[in-house]
């Protein structure tokens, strides 16, 4: 029997809590959530880490980490029944995830599932956003190539582009590239959700401060939930979700994504996936 509770993996909605700001260099804990370069994790247990890493751009909510039970075989059967290719979920479920320290097998397997938005296309001073099915909002080909910035890209229709298998160690944040360095390569998995941006008239000429509300579509939440479950099945326990903005807070060049990500809608997508797997 699949061991997935109502709320799928124990989603708990909680009040947001701050993390103490830590600002010293790399041999000290980095950033407000206290990344330790020796243990290759943020401060506290999984719940405390998720609380801090989901803090800046959400109303609140975390996903707790616990063993995945028999998720992998049930998910494999369900993917086969739906005709969903390995590439749509970041690679084969039978394959391992990347490991930290540039895929050192003695280092921890990937721990963090990082959500981004593409902030593309930039629409400048357009008075409104196009409909979600507009071709310009769903052109994932622009992100393809050997240097794709993320592991998986998800368009507004829920369709995907595989940038790198989740087995491939990659870096996509200022924290990884500018502060921690190669030790972090492989510790974070990166998912980019397509989201257009517009210019805030009160800001600079090239700013992209305005994102649509709601920020993402039901199809994107459903695909993000599937990717999260697939990555967790490959690891053997639930990854800790994080927002890009939380990882880079306080670091020069930090980004402001994902904008308007709704934890409640992500939780609902996880519930629906759980229900599909236990039928």
Explain what the structure shows.
The strands form 2 sheets. The protein has a 5-stranded mixed beta sheet. A hairpin with a 5-residue loop joins strand 4 and strand 5. Helices cover 25% and strands 9% of the residues. About 11% of the residues have low confidence. Helix 5 crosses helix 7. It contains 7 helices and 7 strands, in the order E-H-E-H-H-E-E-E-H-E-H-E-H-H. With 279 residues, it is of the alpha/beta class.
Q: What is the subunit arrangement here?
A: single chain
The coarse silhouette is globular
Approximate strand percentage: 5-15%
> Kindly, what is the distance between the CA atoms of the first and last residues, rounded to a whole number of angstroms?
11 Å
The gyration radius over C-alpha positions equals 18 Å
Helix content: 25-40%
How do the helices and strands line up, and which of them pair or pack?
Layout: E1 11-12, H1 46-53, E2 62-63, H2 71-82, H3 100-103, E3 112-117, E4 152-154, E5 160-162, H4 174-180, E6 188-193, H5 218-235, E7 240-243, H6 244-248, H7 263-278
Parallel strand pairs: 3-6, 3-7, 4-6
Antiparallel strand pairs: 1-2, 4-5
How would you concisely characterize the structure shown here?
The chain contains seven helices and seven strands; from the N terminus they run βαβααβββαβαβαα. With 279 residues, the protein is of the alpha/beta class.
């Amino acid at each position: 029997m699949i061991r997935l509770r109502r709320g799928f993996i124990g989603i708990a909605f909680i009040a947001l809590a701050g993390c103490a700001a830590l600002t010293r260099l790399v041999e000290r804990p980095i950033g407000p959530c206290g990344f330790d370069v020796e243990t290759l994790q943020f401060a506290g247990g999984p719940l405390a880490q998720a609380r801090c890493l989901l803090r800046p751009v959400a109303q609140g909510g975390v996903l707790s980490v616990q063993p995945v039970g028999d998720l992998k075989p049930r998910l494999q059967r369900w993917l086969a029944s739906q005709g969903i290719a390995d590439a749509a979920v970041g690679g084969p479920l039978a394959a391992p995830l990347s490991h930290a320290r540039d895929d050192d097998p003695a280092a921890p397997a990937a721990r963090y599932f990082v959500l981004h938005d593409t902030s593309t296309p930039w629409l400048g001073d357009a008075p409104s956003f196009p409909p979600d099915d507009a071709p310009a909002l769903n052109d994932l080909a622009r992100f393809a190539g050997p240097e794709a910035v993320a592991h998986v890209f998800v368009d507004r229709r829920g369709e995907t582009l595989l940038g790198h298998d989740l087995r491939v160690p990659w870096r996509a944040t200022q924290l990884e590239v500018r502060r921690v360095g190669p030790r972090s390569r492989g510790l974070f998995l990166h998912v980019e959700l397509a989201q257009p941006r517009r210019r805030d008239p009160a800001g600079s000429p090239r700013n992209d401060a305005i994102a649509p509300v709601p920020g993402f579509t039901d199809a994107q939440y459903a695909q993000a939930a599937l990717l999260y479950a697939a990555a967790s099945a490959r690891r053997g326990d639930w990854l800790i979700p994080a927002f890009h903005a939380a990882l880079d807070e306080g670091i020069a060049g930090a980004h402001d994504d994902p904008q308007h990500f709704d934890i409640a809608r992500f939780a609902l997508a996880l519930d629906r996936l759980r229900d599909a797997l236990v039928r």
